[in-house]
């Protein structure tokens, strides 16, 4: 069996997480379900832009949505997405730590 479907899903999820606005939306929705009308004021972007980003997150399976009357409500579908973001933070911290060590080595070399 081909691994392409697995790769395609990974790419879809990771691509959805690779945009700063979408990461901000996920953080905003960490506090619970929100209506688009509640999300918009927190972002200085057009309604169409926010809707596009919300839809990308929904299509990637990161968000869930439903309609209540005239309101479209969004929420985090699976809180394990925060584990993914924490894992990325750990990787980033490792890189920052490595750069800091490299910086100290370079400073020592310059100051000799």
Q: Which CATH top level class of the largest domain fits?
A: Mainly Alpha
- The 3D shape can be described as elongated
**Rg on CA atoms, Å:** 19 Å
CATH homologous superfamily placement of the largest domain:
Winged helix-like DNA-binding domain superfamily/Winged helix DNA-binding domain
Q: How many structural domains are formed by the residues?
A: 2
Looking at CATH, which topology of the largest domain would you report?
Arc Repressor Mutant, subunit A
Counting H and I runs of at least 4 residues, what is the number of helices? 5
Helix content: 55-70%
Order of H and E elements: HHEHHEEH
Mean pLDDT: 92
User: Low-confidence parts, pLDDT < 50 over ≥5 residues?
Assistant: none
Give the strand order of the largest sheet, numbering strands 1, 2, ... along the chain. Answer: 1-3-2
Percent strand: 5-15%
Q: Could you describe the largest sheet, including whether it forms a barrel? A: 3 strands, antiparallel
Strand count = 3
What is the structural class? alpha+beta
For the terminal residues, how far apart are their CA atoms?
59 Å
Q: Based on the coordinates given, report the CATH architecture of the largest domain.
A: Orthogonal Bundle
What's the structural blueprint in terms of helices and strands?
Elements: H1 4-16, H2 20-29, E1 34-35, H3 36-39, H4 47-59, E2 63-68, E3 71-76, H5 81-110
Antiparallel strand pairs: 1-3, 2-3
């Amino acid at each position: 069996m081909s691994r392409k479907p697995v790769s395609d899903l990974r790419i879809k999820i990771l691509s959805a997480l690779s945009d700063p606005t979408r990461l901000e939306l996920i953080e905003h929705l960490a506090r619970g379900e929100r209506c688009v009308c509640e999300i918009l004021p927190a972002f200085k972007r057009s309604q169409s832009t926010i809707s596009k980003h919300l839809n990308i997150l929904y299509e990637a399976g990161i968000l869930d949505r439903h309609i209540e009357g005239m309101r479209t409500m969004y929420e985090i579908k699976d809180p394990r997405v925060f584990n993914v973001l924490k894992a990325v933070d750990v990787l980033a911290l490792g890189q920052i730590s490595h750069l800091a060590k490299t910086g100290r080595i370079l400073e020592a070399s310059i100051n000799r």
